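Notes to self after the Tuesday call (sharing in case useful).
The group wants a holo model before anyone commits to mutagenesis around the pocket. I volunteered. Ligand is S-adenosylmethionine. Logging inputs and output together so the record is complete.
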Amino acid sequence: MIYLEATANIGMEAVLKREAQALGMKNIRVQDGLVSMEGKTEDISRLNLHLRTAERVHWVLARFEARSFTELFDGVYDLPWPDIMPKTANFITEAKSRKSQLFSLSDIQRITEKAVVNKLQTRYKTEWFEKNGARYRIGVRIVDDLATIYLDTSGDGLHDRGYRKRSVKAPLTETLASGLVQLSFWNKNRMLVDPFCGSGTILIEAILLGRNIAPGLNRRFDFEYWNLEGANDKAVRKEAFEMIDYDSKLELYGFDVDPKALEAARINLDSLGFLDDVTLREKDIAQLDLAGDYGVIITNPPYGVRIEDKESVMALNRELGQLAKTLPTWSHYIITADEGFERGFGKKADRKRKLYNGKIKTDYYQYYGPRP
Ligand SMILES: C[S@@+](CC[C@H](N)C(=O)[O-])C[C@H]1O[C@@H](n2cnc3c(N)ncnc32)[C@H](O)[C@@H]1O
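Result:
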């Protein structure tokens, strides 16, 4: 058994916990932006490949009290670094500290690195490590004087799925977009519309979910370069490929007023072979007519902070509200940083959830339609 952690956007922890449960993790605990759990070495592969709302997966190596640099040094030195990393390891240390006696991040980093180097030197007789091999990001997080030492098994953040070939202004992070879809009542049997689709992030994340495609299948993770015994990464990848649902018929629509945004969406969808699942059309929200029952709208309209001015944002929200009135059986989910959203839309949300899009504080307005 090993200890693992997955980091998440603030507000997405409950979704991430559900994902970890579905992957069979044990003793799952939730803190702000962090879900910790117990699993097997193989789960490092499984979590990196399958988690949709996590930003990184940490393998926790130790937890101990560190009120002084001596305690920190000793705790780090005690770990079997020469068994964990080869002589060529390109190791980097990253420190965080909150409510603790040790608070200077550069000192925490320096002492940790010194302990790692001294321990490696007990086996590798060298003064100087060239660091020209695989990357190992060593994390030290000290909270309330309790140090957690971990390895970042993901490397590049998990939002980087490898499909964003072209972007637009203010795209949603992929992890957040997946969370939005998971927080909605959309499933692969329902129509999904994004009237402000931009580069297509929500649509793509919905297809990944609907077809049961592990979001990490198009990329690599740092741990895959570590010769990690028991990771079984090839078998876990194979298993993920076998789980894909190629047969379901999906019905998704993406609209945007900007042809460049649609081009970006087309390129991104095409890079995954998803073009057949989506109809993309250039359309101003004011001209948009939708038909059918029990459809779902999940969208991220422009919000004044970064793009449009407040007045035109209000007008767009009004259009979205008018559209909603013509679709009484539909459910509507809107993420925006515009605090006056409900006034423009013309209705109070059934539920409002605080979420972060990168550093921007947003709300997710949820309007539940009747169940099909
Ligand atoms: C915040 S971005 C959406 C980003 C998208 N979620 C993504 O991840 O790429 C808002 C989008 O709304 C589009 N837009 C602005 N005004 C519009 C209008 N009147 N009708 C339709 N789309 C509009 C913009 O072109 C932009 O692509």
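Two things stood out.
The chain has a mean pLDDT of 96.
The CA atoms of residues 257 and 284 lie 5 Å apart.
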